[in-house]
Specification:
The complex is a heterodimer of chains A (114) and B (223). Chain A is of the alpha+beta class and 114 residues long. Chain A has a single domain (3-12, 24-113), classed as hypothetical protein PF0899 fold (2-Layer Sandwich), CATH 3.30.2320.80. Chain A has 3 helices and 6 strands, in the order αβαβββαββ. In chain A, the strands form 2 sheets. In chain A, strands 2-1-6 form a 3-stranded mixed β-sheet, covered by helices on one side. In chain B, β3 (63-69), α3 (74-83) and β4 (86-91) form a beta-alpha-beta unit. Chain B contains 9 helices and 8 strands. Chain B has a 7-stranded parallel β-sheet, sandwiched between helices. Chain B has helices spanning 15-30, 46-57, 74-83, 100-110, 128-131, 151-154, 156-161, 180-190, 207-222, and strands at 5-12, 34-40, 63-69, 86-91, 117-121, 138-144, 164-168, 195-198. Chain B has a single domain, classed as 3-Layer(aba) Sandwich (Rossmann fold), CATH 3.40.50. The chains are: A alpha+beta (114), B alpha/beta (223). At the A-B interface, α1 and β6 of A face β1 of B. β6 of chain A pairs antiparallel with β1 of chain B. Bound molecules: guanosine-5'-triphosphate (GTP), magnesium ion (MG) and zinc ion. Guanosine-5'-triphosphate (GTP) binds at residues 40, 42-48, 75, 124, 168-169, 171-172, 200-202 of chain B. Guanosine-5'-triphosphate is lined by residues 40, 42-48, 75, 124, 168-169, 171-172, 200-202 of chain B.
């Protein structure tokens, strides 16, 4: 829901890294995005393509998004399950004493450039 | 042409903002300034609650308000007119949230050496503002009765980062199937530490308890 704001933060961070490493152009930026983070990949890409055109270092940069599966853990029966299919309820024992183990990440993984 | 280099970064998108927010919070604390970040869905009663709260606290504190609206300035005008305290409009440039950098810019304009209790009315939204730490000393949110008692389950992040949850519009409780006890349980599930205060911003019912909570937190922040 806040893809544009996020894109500006990523551009700032990545520009700083590019400068530190004396890059003259960044060709790609790889993100890792959990499947239950609140960010929608398609919107993110749209915002990205619009925003990088206004920059110098990133104007050619392609956005690569690696999805991270959403997995929850049940505290009652100690099993893991797919969060998107089952939500908060454990498919093994029916308990709702569950928590998200992974899937809400939003990381800048790496950049490439020269 | 230079060879293509791959540089590993491995850091959260929110990390730079989190660090900036911690820095701002510490700076405010050292200056004895308390910043409250107030969040809710559109129309839950942020501005009405602020008016009632400010009118109870303005004689003992130097209050200043920042109104973050995507476009209009009606809230900033209403606060200034009905409470008399300094109030400014922050321009979010179409953004659905404020980050620590934008909050700092707003404070630079708001704090003129006098203000020691600053209030930020965040953009009406239960998702985005929760992801961006503004640097506020304390976070508060309003859930109004018509929105339903299941919202803590649907927007867990927002409820988990708030120090206090105000349940507003309790005057309309008879017309909705809102279960206050169930709502408190749902909030506890997400955030056992959160204080829950039922209020009616329109009549002022319950607002004194919120004021009491604020006074205590302001005292703690001053050290
Ligand atoms: N019945 C009732 N109505 C209320 C109460 N508090 C606020 N309202 C009404 O709810 C509407 C929205 O209130 P606001 O204070 O403007 O809400 P807001 O959260 O600031 O709204 P935005 O800034 O637009 O997101 C107004 O018509 C208020 O009069 C209350 O306790 N009871
Ligand atoms: Mg308002
Ligand atoms: Zn189970």
């Amino acid at each position: 829901m806040h893809e544009l704001g996020v894109v500006f933060h990523i551009i700032d961070d990545v520009t700083a890294v590019g400068r530190e490493n004396n890059l003259t152009g960044i060709s790609s930026v790889t993100l890792q995005l959990g499947k239950v983070s609140t960010v929608i990949p398609e919107y993110l890409t749209d915002c990205w393509n619009w925003a990088v055109k206004k920059t110098d270092l990133l104007k050619e940069a392609e956005l690569i998004i690696e999805p991270i599966e959403a997995i929850s853990f049940c505290e009652d029966c100690k099993t893991s399950f797919d969060t998107i299919e089952n939500g908060k309820t454990c498919p093994n024992c029916g308990s709702t004493h569950t928590f998200l183990q992974q899937g809400n990440e939003f990381m800048i993984k790496e950049i490439s450039g020269s | 042409m230079d060879a293509v280099k791959v540089i590993e970064i491995k850091k959260s998108v929110y990390e730079s903002n989190d660090r900036e927010a911690d820095r701002l919070r510490e700076e405010l604390r050292s200056k004895g300034i308390f910043l409250l970040n107030l969040m809710s869905s559109p129309g839950s009663g942020k501005t009405t609650t602020l008016k009632a709260t400010i009118n109870r606290m303005k004689y003992t504190h130097n209050i200043g308000v920042m109104e973050a609206d995507i476009d209009s300035d009606v809230d900033a005008i209403a606060i200034a007119k009905e409470t008399g305290v300094k109030s400014i409009q922050l321009h979010t440039g179409g953004m659905c949230h404020l980050d620590a950098g934008m909050t700092r810019q707003g404070l630079d304009e708001l704090i003129d050496g006098k203000v020691d209790f600053a209030i930020l009315e965040n953009v009406g939204n239960l998702v985005c503002p929760a992801e961006f730490d503004t640097g506020a000393t304390k976070n508060a949110m309003i859930l109004s009765v018509p929105e339903g008692d299941d919202k803590p389950l649907k927007y867990p992040l927002m409820f988990s980062i708030c120090d206090v949850v105000l349940i507003n519009k309790i005057d309309v409780m008879p017309y909705f199937d809102f279960d206050l006890e169930k709502c408190k349980e749902n909030i506890k599930l997400r955030n056992p530490q959160a204080k829950v205060i039922p209020i009616c911003a329109k009549t002022g019912e319950g607002v004194d308890e919120f004021v009491k909570w604020l006074e205590e937190e302001i005292r703690i922040n001053k050290g």
